[in-house]
Structure prediction request, 185 residues.
Amino acid sequence: MTEKGKLLVVSGPSGVGKSTVIGILMKLRGNMEFSVSATTRSPRPGEQDGVDYFFVSRERFDEMVENDELLEHATFVGNSYGTPRSQVESRIENGITVVLDIEVQGAAQVKEKMPEAITVFMAPPSLDALESRLRGRGTETEETILSRLETARRELLLAPRYDYTVINDVPERAAEELRDILDKN
Prediction:
């Protein structure tokens, strides 16, 4: 019988490097996949249904919420997004570790529905370091940077609700820490 996979939920402030660390982790440790979210937004050029997102109608999304088919869901800028429960559960049953990179409210919803999920809050070494990363991107307005830093301050207060906190000072070291967390759970 195949050993079951795990559900790894990673949250943290914008700019902390979640995608970078998760990418390194997936190279360090095989048999992992990103979860594919459902969304009511239209596909962007090049996006494929079932690969980038499951593109669904507003009616179908509301039905999924009503029938408890989503581990978590939220609405951003008029579009809804959610994690289909069946996709995650079938992968875990087949021995695949599923990774969710989601915001703090979604992480709390997942933990409530799947208490066995391993939750990790990824934190910056400091708010100054986070500000430097956000400014270094060169893609954000001053207003956006200040807004993201304010959100980060609020999110950092929620770190104790997670099973683990990983400080991303060096992405390779943070990825190794995530691997070790998965190995011991």
